[in-house]
Amino acid sequence: MPEADNSGGIAWKHQLYLLLALNTLNHIQYTGARFTVLLYAVHQQASPVVVGLLIALNSLFPAITSVRVGQVLDRCRNLRQPMLWVSVIMAAGVVLPAIWDSLAALFIFCIVVGSNFNVFRIASQQLTGQFGESKDRPGNYNLYSQCLAIGNLIAPLMAGFAIDHVGFHFTLLIFALLAVPPITIFALDRIRLPQTQQARGQEKSSPGSAWNLLRIPSLRRVLIVGVVLATAWDIFTFIWPLYGTQLKFSASQIGLVAGIFYSGTFVVRILASLLLRRFSQWQLLLLSMASASFIYILFPMLSSFTLLIITAFILGLVLGIIQPMTMSLAYDEAPHNRKAEVIGLRMTLALGLHVVIPLLSGALGSALGLAPVYWAAAAMLLTGFWTARSQWHYRKA
Predict the structure, then answer these.
(1) Quick one: which of 22, 302, 19 has its CA closest to 179?
(2) Of 11 and 253, the one with more pLDDT
(3) Fold for domain 11-191+214-393?
(4) Extents of the domains making up the chain
């Protein structure tokens, strides 16, 4: 099937919607399976250190390979084949812990599924920015983020209730089946994808290391703030199941609180266009850091299920705005023939911390309890806010 025509009418929108639907299924599969594996490890009496190591491995190989993945994807004329093969490998990785009852299977899952999901994610973000014209990009990325929010809402709820009713193994098999539609669509070539920027221009990559991209001040600021906020997001994802288990909540209750958090991210992304009429993208990012820091100070003081649901929803509202803002700003500031490379660099920076943060959080949680982990996240957010405060009045021409 030929590549999507981005120039005329709304034809490209139909293809974008199909891509986002496939990306949502992929995201539900990854998020739900990871959530299931995390609770399974806790169920097997794994310590916070072991759980932290599992999450760290989930990010380690993507952190090492993201820049290289971005460079390769920049040179691919059509991304259908890479997305097909990573979908197949992810499905196999999700099935493994369901048929091999071993802690080793969980470690292999984190390495294989985390790495291949990262390829799918970079490719999807690259393609989302290339559908339509430049004026369509903020809307495209907001749609992308809304679809992720839907996936984040469904995945933990689906995982929690499935675990309680059919057990861990069948839950993983259910998530593996979500790969069938993407594999079928890509294998039969039923989606039109735009050519990459580089393929259209037949240009070579700019010389020098990807780290030279950090010499662009505007891009560097966006990447650093994005990393801080993404780390705050992942700390909640990692620590909440441990905290919920500590409070003696069931898997369904833990999944419900996580789902409420993600529902907040969905709501705020629906309201993004209204918020951008009142605030700039940088103002929204700064407000997000300041508000999230206060919530993280408060969160470990709560034990009421109702209060935790309310607080999780508010935290979702606060952190949910970060992804469309940072993706759009990073894409705009990136050199035109190095878009996927910038996405890969952004992933490397974020995932590099995601390797360290779970290990430190697990060690800190084992030694001092989970409250200091939340408070460390609050300190990081306040530091990021103070460092970037001069961007409050920034307006791009």
Answers:
(1) 22
(2) 253
(3) Growth Hormone; Chain: A; (1.20.1250)
(4) 11-191+214-393
